[in-house]
Amino acid sequence: MHNYILFLIGVFLLISCDSNMIFDDYKSIENHQWSSEKNISFIVFNSDTISTRNVFINIRNNKKYEFNSLFLIAKMEFPSGYKIVDTLEYEMTDPFGNWLGSGFTDIKENKLFYKENVIFSEKGDYKFSVQHATRSINDVEGIIPLQGITDVGLRIEKVKK
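RESULT FIELD:
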C-alpha cells in the first residue's frame, strides 16, 4: 500500500511538471471586488535575451462577474524603463452566455494571450501591471468595483518549437 501511494505521488508530480513554464503567479482580489484604480503588479527577472516566449494574463472569475467581455489595460516595463501599454478586450462567455475557460466549480480560469512570440531583449527586472477598464454602456467612469474577479495572474512560457 505504501509503495502504491508513493507511485501515485510520483505520477502526479510527473504529470504536473510544466517544462515550458518560466513564470506563473497569481494575486488574489480582495473580496472579489476589483477597483479600476487597483493595479495588479508582477516583477519578473530575465537573464535570457535570446529565447522566444508567450506571455499570458490569467483571470479567475466566479458567477458574480456580470459581463461577457473583460477590458484590461496592461503595461510592460523593460529594465531600461521603456514601457509598452496595451488596451485589451477578452471574451469571457460564448454567444449563449456560457462561461469560457476551464474549471468544474463556480470558478472559471481563463488563460488569455497578452504577448505572443516576444523576446525579452534586456537582462533585468521586467515589471508587468494589469488594471481593469470594464465599463457599462454609456458609463465613462468604469465599474467600481468590478465584481466576480477572484484572481489575476501572469504566466510566461517558452515557445514550443
